Amino acid sequence: MQTPPAIPVPVLRLPRGPDGLSRGFAPDGRRAPPKPEVPGSPGSPVGRESRESREQQARAALRERYLRSLLAMVGHQVNFTLHEGVHVTAHFGAADLDVANFYVLQLQTPIGVQAEALLRCSDIISYTFKP
Amino acid sequence: MAMRQTPLTCSGHTRPVVDLAFSGITPYGYFLISACKDGKPMLRQGDTGDWIGTFLGHKGAVWGATLNKDATKAATAAADFTAKVWDAVSGDELMTLAHKHIVKTVDFTQDSNYLLTGGQDKLLRIYDLNKPEAEPKEISGHTSGIKKALWCSEDKQILSADDKTVRLWDHATMTEVKSLNFNMSVSSMEYIPEGEILVITYGRSIAFHSAVSLDPIKSFEAPATINSASLHPEKEFLVAGGEDFKLYKYDYNSGEELESYKGHFGPIHCVRFSPDGELYASGSEDGTLRLWQTVVGKTYGLWKCVLPEDSGELAKPKISFPETTEEELEEIASENSDSIYSSTPEVKA
């Protein structure tokens, strides 16, 4: 019996290499210190646009941090505070695309330990973990 | 539908890559630094391998490189008899620490307040980074050049390796606590804080010891001389590479060889798992760094799992259990895609 030929895992692109021009550490990189305020009155169209783009950048940065916080939770013990004063603990597995559900393992509930479970995020008030 | 590993090659160095290190996981992801004989260590984004910047300043081969936990500082050890501390966000050089011989190894404490260095002058040095003008504390005792020095046990102890010994030192008293002797040259050392495990490679052996007592836990033999090995954060796998240019992945519990990969064009000098365990990086004599997936076929970083058009082969079970075999994880990865494939739900016993 012949095994079918293996398909190489597809990649989005190759890693970017040095630009050959500079030493890098782009000043507009994500970790760069915040730039000074752009001149222009807040009410003018230019001021409004730059305020919006700054706000969008801030939202994007916060979103990225949140997603990375979910990645950092994988495999760790997380304490969830649910409605009606219920507290449960579980090992975090994954979140779905819309962060509507959390897949957890070893969910300790007041009525026993569940090996695997899906927690509805709409039921969760807060959660904490130690990285 | 088996998937074949696609390594991601990071080019940029012009000479052998001799050391690499990952940072911890930061709000900006995690980072990777590579030490190269071309004297120009590079910082890369850890999950994609994208180049961020090159630390310019050393006048000789860089033998060791490390990042602090939050990737705000980098340290490098070089053949120009200096260790340097860098701002890893701006790329600026912060400190040059003069030594009396080639420096081979550097390590930050968890709080980034102290830097440990070691090299050919056979001395361990501890620098207080808040007092760069002050003289470092020195620990002597090694009888040959120090290849690797690491903080351990929450920075209360130091592990150091020279050609034929690994020694454990107490930080407070600066005295030797224990030592291990080897018949063959020790090629690498890795410290795993969770579980206090020390990974040592020598000859074809990959050995695991307790970092607290130095007592042996287990060891495996590889088909060729191994230069570096790394244990997965969840301690399910280990990866190793060496003189036959190949990377090997073993099951840590059974010692079974799970996968091996050709790809580098020269001996592998260093290999490390990322802090999230999703990939491992290898540095080689061929001047490249390569990133490899721990679970082949999973969507992560630049790897994207895309199912083929043809659904003829898919008569696989859709229900999987939380095991970690390659096949089942690939199926879980493929389940993330659309549900146009009809499946016969078989339950695996």
UniProtKB/TrEMBL annotation, chain A:
- Its source organism is Panthera tigris altaica
Main location class: cytoplasm
The UniProt family comment states: Belongs to the gemin-7 family.
GO molecular function annotations of the record: RNA binding
Say what the protein does. The SMN complex catalyzes the assembly of small nuclear ribonucleoproteins (snRNPs), the building blocks of the spliceosome, and thereby plays an important role in the splicing of cellular pre-mRNAs. Most spliceosomal snRNPs contain a common set of Sm proteins SNRPB, SNRPD1, SNRPD2, SNRPD3, SNRPE, SNRPF and SNRPG that assemble in a heptameric protein ring on the Sm site of the small nuclear RNA to form the core snRNP (Sm core).
* Organismal lineage: Eukaryota, Metazoa, Chordata, Craniata, Vertebrata
What is the official name of this protein in its record? Gem-associated protein 7
**Regions that span the bilayer:** none
Q: What keywords sit in the KW lines?
A: Acetylation, Cytoplasm, mRNA processing, mRNA splicing, Nucleus
Quote the PANTHER family the UniProt record gives.
Answer: GEM-ASSOCIATED PROTEIN 7 (PTHR14679)
Subunit structure and binding partners:
Part of the core SMN complex that contains SMN1, GEMIN2/SIP1, DDX20/GEMIN3, GEMIN4, GEMIN5, GEMIN6, GEMIN7, GEMIN8 and STRAP/UNRIP. Part of the SMN-Sm complex that contains SMN1, GEMIN2/SIP1, DDX20/GEMIN3, GEMIN4, GEMIN5, GEMIN6, GEMIN7, GEMIN8, STRAP/UNRIP and the Sm proteins SNRPB, SNRPD1, SNRPD2, SNRPD3, SNRPE, SNRPF and SNRPG. Interacts with GEMIN6; the interaction is direct. Interacts with STRAP/UNRIP; the interaction is direct. Interacts with GEMIN8; the interaction is direct. Interacts with SNRPB, SNRPD2, SNRPD3 and SNRPE; the interaction is direct.
UniProtKB/TrEMBL annotation, chain B:
Q: A Pfam family name for this chain?
A: WD40
Q: What InterPro entries does its record include? A: WD40/YVTN_repeat-like_dom_sf (IPR015943), WD40_PAC1 (IPR020472), WD40_repeat_dom_sf (IPR036322), WD40_rpt (IPR001680)
Q: Which PROSITE patterns match?
A: WD_REPEATS_2 (PS50082), WD_REPEATS_REGION (PS50294)
| WD repeat copies, ranges | 55-96, 96-137, 139-179, 261-293
Q: What spans are recorded as compositionally biased (Polar residues)?
A: 334-349
One annotated Gene Ontology cellular component of this protein: SMN complex
Extent of the signal sequence = none
GO biological process annotation, one example:
spliceosomal snRNP assembly
Keyword set for this entry? Kinase, mRNA processing, mRNA splicing, Receptor, Repeat, Transferase, WD repeat
Q: Which domain of life is it from?
A: Eukaryota
For this chain, one GO molecular function annotation is: RNA binding
Q: Which Gene3D superfamilies match?
A: YVTN repeat-like/Quinoprotein amine dehydrogenase
Q: Which SMART domains match?
A: WD40
Could you tell me where the Acidic residues compositional bias lies?
324-333
Sequence segments annotated as region (Disordered)? 316-349
Task: Tell me which PANTHER family the record gives.
Answer: EUKARYOTIC TRANSLATION INITIATION FACTOR 3 SUBUNIT I, SERINE-THREONINE KINASE RECEPTOR-ASSOCIATED PROTEIN
Its family? Belongs to the WD repeat STRAP family.
Stated name of the protein = Serine-threonine kinase receptor-associated protein
